[in-house]
Description:
- This protein is mostly helical.
- The protein has one domain.
- The chain is about 70% helix and about 0% strand.
- The protein contains 3 helices and no strands.
- The longest helix is centred in the C-terminal third of the chain and has 24 residues, at about 60-84.
- The chain is elongated.
- The model has no long low-confidence stretch (mean pLDDT about 90).
Amino acid sequence: xxxxxxxxxxxxxxxxxxxxxxxxxAVVLTxxxxxxxxxxxxxxxxxxxxxxxxxxxxxxxDIFAGALIGSAMGLLVHLAxxxx
Length: 84
């Protein structure tokens, strides 16, 4: 059945854009959230990142790098908000 066939990526998978976006959002949202919500944001980011490996679009190193990049950019946004 071709409905469930997992596609092969056509482009480079490093780093994972989904992981970087999810972790960026999680880090930025911590500024205005309480601990229960912060936990939710990071659980969601982890689910997004690991789903990319589960569907064989990325390797673990791709999502790890994406998570680091997204988190770093989120911290830069925190600094920029604090500065202004």
